[in-house]
Specification:
This protein has 282 residues and is of the alpha/beta class. It has three domains: 4-83 and 171-178, D-Maltodextrin-Binding Protein, domain 2; 86-161, D-Maltodextrin-Binding Protein, domain 2, CATH 3.40.190; 191-271, Alpha-Beta Plaits, CATH 3.30.70. It contains eight helices and 15 strands. It catalyses: prephenate + H(+) = 3-phenylpyruvate + CO2 + H2O. GO terms for molecular function: prephenate dehydratase activity. One of its GO terms (biological process) is L-phenylalanine biosynthetic process. Pathway: Amino-acid biosynthesis; L-phenylalanine biosynthesis; phenylpyruvate from prephenate: step 1/1.
């Protein structure tokens, strides 16, 4: 039986590209929302889920970090996709004709300089590939879509301008989710342990909780906070550290964290992708 990997968006979305690059032996399954992609994995309609979590230009993707802890799924891998943004138009359209361009709310700021310099109005779409689909289905020669070259091929659109992203290293990071955790692997480039936690309501609790990672030599690569339950006082943190829970220094750090928290949930243990260690160009 063919294995499937769910992603948010229509065929030709960057999530689709991520699936093909990271899991070429899986059949991509398009889903209208991140919630639907997660549910597809939960219900067994897909074996894995490809979930976008952050972009190097835009930052954190929407409410994904609030969805993941409640998903019941586990992070088993990560994937980095170089996002080349293209302006697509109907066959025969010219760049100077385009008056508006549609794309997902995350992608619009990634090519803001290009849109402003060409007097093109940004229009929000539920998905970049959906924007391409809508342009292809319509009759408006002044409407464009911000999407991948794959989307241009799928929907029969012309590429009016290539690689219009503001930054030449524009990259989106995806997390690969599964129903079951995989704690036995050891990656060539190291391991990453991800978890969510809430600190106890005592003075300097977060400072004290983080101290265990410093004293045990554990590198924390990500720490993000977000509110839960609609309360300003209920803050949850998402964290990633280098190492495996079986590593003695990680064990000691997590034990110290446990003392200052009232909730910890392991989200995943996965090999660090090579792209994590790429150095920025001077």
């Amino acid at each position: 039986m063919t294995k499937r990997i769910a992603f948010q968006g229509e065929p030709g979305a960057y999530g689709h590209q991520a699936c093909i690059e990271a899991r070429p032996d899986y059949e991509p399954l398009p889903c209208p929302t991140f919630e639907a992609a997660i549910e597809a994995v939960r219900l067994g309609h897909a074996d894995l889920g490809m979930i976008a979590v952050e972009n190097s230009t835009y930052g954190r993707v929407g409410d994904v970090h609030t969805l993941l802890p409640e998903s019941g799924l586990h992070i088993v891998d990560e994937a980095f996709v170089r996002v080349h943004i293209n302006l697509l138009g109907k066959p025969g359209a010219q760049l100077n004709q385009i008056r508006s361009a549609a794309g997902h709310v995350v992608i619009l700021p990634q090519c803001g300089k290009f849109l402003r310099s060409h007097g093109i109005a940004p229009v929000t779409s539920s998905d970049n590939a959906r924007a391409a689909m809508d342009v292809a289905a319509g009759e408006d020669m002044t409407a464009g879509a911000l999407a991948s070259e794959m989307a241009a091929k799928i929907y029969g659109l012309d590429i009016l301008a290539r690689h219009i992203e503001d930054h030449d290293r524009n990259t989106t990071r995806f997390l690969i989710m599964a129903r079951d955790p995989d704690l036995n692997r050891r990656g060539k480039h190291g391991m990453v342990t991800s978890f969510v936690f809430r600190v106890r309501n005592i003075p300097a609790a977060l400072y004290k909780a983080m101290g265990g990672f410093a004293t045990n030599g554990v590198n924390m690569t990500k720490l993000e906070s977000y509110m839960v339950g609609g309360q300003f006082t209920a803050t949850q943190f998402y964290a990633e550290v280098e190492g495996h829970p079986d590593d003695r220094n990680v064990q000691r750090a997590m034990d110290e964290l446990d003392y200052f928290t009232d909730h910890i949930r392991l989200m995943g243990v996965f090999p660090a992708a090579p792209r994590r260690h790429e150095k920025a160009k001077p």
